[in-house]
Amino acid sequence: MSVIPHLINGELVTENGRAVDVYNPSTGQAIHKLPLATRETIQSAIDAAKAAFPAWRNTPPAKRAQVMFRFKQLLEQNEARISQLISEEHGKTLEDAAGELKRGIENVEFACAAPEILKGEYSRNVGPNIDAWSDFQPLGVVAGITPFNFPAMVPLWMYPLAIVCGNCFILKPSERDPSSTLLIAQLLLEAGLPKGVVSVVHGDKAAVDALIEAPEVKALSFVGSTPIAEYIYSEGTKRGKRVQALGGAKNHAVLMPDADLDNAVSALMGAAYGSCGERCMAISVAVCVGDQVADALVAKLVPQIKALKIGAGTNCGLDMGPLVTGQARDKVSGYVEDGVAAGATLVVDGRGLTVAGHEEGFFLGGCLFDNVTPEMRIYKEEIFGPVLCVVRVNSLEEAMQLINDHEYGNGTCIFTRDGEAARLFCDEIEVGMVGVNVPLPVPVAYHSFGGWKRSLFGDLHAYGPDGVRFYTRRKAITQRWPQRASHEASQFAFPSL
Questions:
Q1: Closest by Cα among 190, 170, 165 to 50
Q2: pLDDT tens-digit map of 460-493
Q3: pLDDT of residue 208
Q4: Which domain does 162 fall in, by range?
Q5: Fewest beta carbons within 10 Å, which of 50, 233, 273, 363?
Q6: Residue 57 region, left (φ>0) first, then alpha (ψ -120 to 50), else beta?
Q7: Cβ atoms within 10 Å, residue 35
Q8: 337 and 195 part of one domain
């Protein structure tokens, strides 16, 4: 069984000690051994980043951008190889893995605009012979902690932008599917990034705590569950670090009576069951305005859910692969059991699915609940699996109140032909990312990604303009060059124009 190394100061590093297995979820078999970093290993990555920072921060933004242009080209050339690694360790289909990578590359493209996004602001003659300007300067050593569900895309939300802003970055990816993340970081070095500017260290909570506690680490980015997001935000900020911690979600789709139901069903199938529902933007609740809409929706969903093509993610032409681990499959099955016990109507039961030739894989078929109520656990909690819950309401206002009362506010959407209803929904809904007839309203790279309420801890969203602000700090400079012939008396009042 091969060992997956760390990447520190441009070198692949292995160590003895604690380790975990990395599985192929389609077969249920361990395929790699992953060493978990000690505090000493984490510190060596920090030391390398700290040593590389002075030269990198003084590298012109245009030269940093040139590295990103070459990096983008290498990512595109290695798409098939990266997608294969994602599918082997995560389980998502090859097509889904390729789509994830493409969305990550969009953020590299945004980072290529470094000279524009870092050019600062300038005002001449704010006072007599006085000019003022603002610089956006790097923080220093920053770190990212990323989840299993997007091993390529989420890291690419973080370090391309952090790097072109002049920082040095330490990445701790998920220990469940780290190979694609490591390969992508190696491609960045191949693109010409100096040693030490990016390091990849593998680990669990001990590694996270080491990054939180290290005084050299000035900022932390995180994507994962809400309890861990809240922990990282609390522990990081009390140590004076800048933190953006993106947490969990319970994303609702509202279906109005005038919705184009066929298109809505197609959209919901992909949004609820794509990637086995292991997305923080997955639609897990369909809120139907009126029983007629709900009945029609369920009738159209059932045959499509039963027809889902499910198999080993590395095979082509599939709709779904397995869940990432056996524990994840069992947890989702437990939610299904709980929903039945609570009185919801289990219309489609995907439990007990086996795939020929992959009987030990972590598979679960699509599940559909009807008559779900807000008191049920399957409604309140993030299931993170291929389970869609149908909730019935009588009005748009009732649907919006339901969404606004939920503790999460990551993403939502509405299906309607009514512009007035869509506008009201967009204005009044208390959610960070909203779609109108768009089921997965993930912002493009030149906007920013983030939820509201307990879906985000911190003031700035991920990537885009907010990402630039997160990875830089503003320095305001006011400069005066008096005329040689002039001499002014001392002024003791607070200066003004």
A1: 170
A2: 999 999 999 999 999 999 999 877 666 666 777 7
A3: 97
A4: 2-247+455-477
A5: 50
A6: alpha
A7: 22
A8: no
Tell me how many domains the chain contains: 2
Give the residue numbers marked as catalytic. 280
* Calpha distance 42→20 (Å, rounded): 17
Weakest mean pLDDT among 179-193, 311-325, 375-389? 311-325
Does pLDDT of 81 surpass 70? yes
What's the CATH number where 306 sits? 3.40.309.10
CA separation for the pair 403, 409 (Å, rounded): 8
pLDDT of residue 183: 98
What is the C-alpha separation between 448 and 445, in angstroms, rounded? Answer: 7
Place 53 in a pLDDT band, splitting at 50, 70 and 90. very high
The answer on 214 and 304 residing in a single domain is no
Residue type for position 338: D
DSSP annotation of 37 reads P
Do 391 and 470 fall into the same domain? Answer: no
Which residue from 458, 294, 452, 455 is spatially nearest to 382, judged by alpha carbons? 455
Q: Is the pLDDT of residue 449 over 80?
A: yes
Residue 271 sits in the same domain as residue 127: no
Q: Residue 450: inside a domain, yes or no? A: no
Tokens 């027809």, located at residue: 307
pLDDT score at 485: 61
How many angstroms separate the CA atoms of 149 and 65, rounded?
28
pTM (predicted TM-score): 0.94
CB of 472 closer than 8 Å to CB of 137: yes
- Integer Cα distance of 306 and 389 in angstroms: 16
